Amino acid sequence: MAITSKFRRTATVTALSALVGGSALATAGTATAASSDYPFCVPGQLNASVTENQAPDDGRLFALELEAKPGVSCQIQGAPSGLTFYNGDTIRDMPVITPEPGSAQPYTIDEQHPGIAYISTPAKSSDPVPVSKISFTLPAGGGLSADWPGAIDGPVRLGNIGPAVS
């Protein structure tokens, strides 16, 4: 049994590491294929939120969720850029590792299919950086912000926007 449990943990860590690192395409659930019939997503079409999820390893895993407003279907491809972390109104310096250029696949966000960019960080240290908010730019331009769930350590590793992975 120990081998099976260890194998599952290793497989989960490998899959999420590949997804967050942008070095492989992972699909899950009922992801919608991107269509050129949809415009690129802009800030007025989306709501953003961040939640902390269970990390498969000793680090921490966050999900930056981009949810379509009612009646919206739009296309997105790539990762958010210009991630800026704040504690109140104070900018907190945090190194960000971004995905490899050209590693993203187009994805359509609609009311049933939010876009998720996974963000991984090291395990919490004894002196984490206080963070209460994040701002970023969408791949096609335009900025959004969201509340951040708590203090973190860097560097931060960002993944491309795509479907949720379970």
Describe the structure in your own words:
The protein has 166 residues and is mostly beta strands. Helix content is 12%, strand content 33%. It has a five-stranded mixed beta sheet, covered by helices on one side. A four-stranded antiparallel beta sheet has the order 5-4-9-10, with no helix packed on it. Strands 3-7 form a two-stranded antiparallel sheet. Strand 9 and strand 10 form a beta hairpin. The protein starts with a helix and ends in an 8-residue tail after the last strand. The N terminus is likely disordered.
The order of strands across the largest sheet is 1-2-8-11-6
User: From N to C, what is the helix and strand string?
Assistant: HEEEEEEEEEEE
How much is the radius of gyration in Å? 16 Å
The major pleated sheet works out as:
5 strands, mixed
| Strand content bin | 25-35%
DSSP E strands, number? 11
Give the distance, in angstroms, between the N- and C-terminal Cα atoms. 23 Å
Find the structural class using helix and strand composition. Answer: mainly beta
Q: How many alpha or pi helices?
A: 1
pLDDT under 50 segments (min length 5)? 1-32
On the 0 to 100 scale, the average pLDDT is 84
Helix content: 10-25%
Shape type: globular
Gist of the model:
The protein has 166 residues and is mainly beta.
Features:
five-stranded mixed beta sheet; mainly beta; 166 residues; 11 strands
Describe the protein's topology.
Blueprint lengths: L1 H20 L24 E8 L6 E9 L5 E3 L4 E7 L2 E3 L3 E2 L9 E3 L5 E7 L11 E5 L5 E5 L8 E3 L8
Parallel strand pairs: 6-11
Antiparallel strand pairs: 1-2, 2-8, 3-7, 4-5, 4-9, 8-11, 9-10
